[in-house]
Amino acid sequence: MKSKYLLLSFLLMLFWNSFSSEYNEVLLKANRLKSGAQYTRAIRYYNKAIKFEKNNDEAIKEIYFHIADCYFKLGREVMAYKVLTATVYKLGATKVDFENNSIVDKEFLKASWIKMEPKYNRFRQRYIASLDGIDDYLADGNYVLNPKQ
User: Fold this and answer.
1) Which range is the signal sequence, renumbered to this chain (predicted)?
2) Which tens digits make up the pLDDT trace of 47-85?
């Protein structure tokens, strides 16, 4: 019985490592394409990478920022803005995420934030309402309180 457990554990580890390795390869390919100014192809690979990380909002958030940057560099600023707003209402990006962002063009990010700011609280509420473990989310301090003045 113990050997069956060990074999099962080994197979699961092997599967997980292969899965993780494939994700890293896809993400590396996307980053290389982006570095080579092949933005449309890079977006396709970033979208493939998202499929590997379905339950990891932090990883997906970073990928969304890369996708937004690709759209910006393609001259598709409206689409880039839509992706940035999705980071807030789908993935819980905060103002701090925007301030500390080193992926997206700084001027575009600043302009996008100014445009998004009036809708920010509504986007955050939408994200928080979508969470299954809202109590765990709040217990971890993953929120920003802005008291009305």
Assistant:
1) 1-20
2) 999 998 888 888 999 999 999 999 999 999 999 999 999
Contacts of 130 (CB under 8 A, 6+ apart): 90
Task: For residue 101, count CB atoms less than 10 angstroms from its CB and return exposed for 0-12, middle for 13-18, buried for 19 or more.
Answer: buried
Task: Report domain 2-132's class.
Answer: mainly alpha
Quickly count: other Cβ atoms within 10 Å of residue 147's Cβ.
4
What is the pTM for the complete model shown? 0.77
Q: What angle do CA 34, 94, 44 make, to 5 degrees?
A: 25
Break the chain into its structural domains and give their ranges: 2-132
d(CA 83, CA 43): 12
